[in-house]
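Whiteboard transcription, Tuesday session. T.W. wrote the structure tokens on the left side:
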């Protein structure tokens, strides 16, 4: 495996942002990635904006970095803007992310979108 050298990855690994589980979220999702790793996302919404977002994963270090970056990118954003986040946006932040680890970014963004869908569906939106 290629050495993880990106400063951004190192920062998000040393101190992952928004890592943890949330009690009583407004929306939540758990997704099992193609590799068998799981990611969970929890969101709180207020006035149409994501006020809190947490993720938890048993996945690899790059997956942890992807969850950290994805949650940082959508915190404070509207639901509409958060739904525009794509795996490519996360990959762009991880400049030397290996091609074989693209699925880690897909797992993070998919889990986020499912948590948002959970919120919207619960409210019949
Ligand atoms: Fe499984 Fe990253 S290696 S999600």
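and on the right, the sequence the group agreed on:
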């Amino acid at each position: 495996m290629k050495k993880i050298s990106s400063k951004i990855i190192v920062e998000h690994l040393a101190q992952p942002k928004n890592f943890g589980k949330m009690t009583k979220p407004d929306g939540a999702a758990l997704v099992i990635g193609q590799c068998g790793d799981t990611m969970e996302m929890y969101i709180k919404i207020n006035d149409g904006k994501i006020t809190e977002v947490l993720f938890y994963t048993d996945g690899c270090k790059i997956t942890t970095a992807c969850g950290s970056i994805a949650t940082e990118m959508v915190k404070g954003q509207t639901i509409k803007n958060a739904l525009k986040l794509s795996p490519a946006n996360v990959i762009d932040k991880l400049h030397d992310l290996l091609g074989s680890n693209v699925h880690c970014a897909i797992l993070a963004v998919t889990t986020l979108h499912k948590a948002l869908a959970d919120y919207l569906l619960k409210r019949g939106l």
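Someone added at the bottom: The first strand starts at residue 27 and ends at 32.
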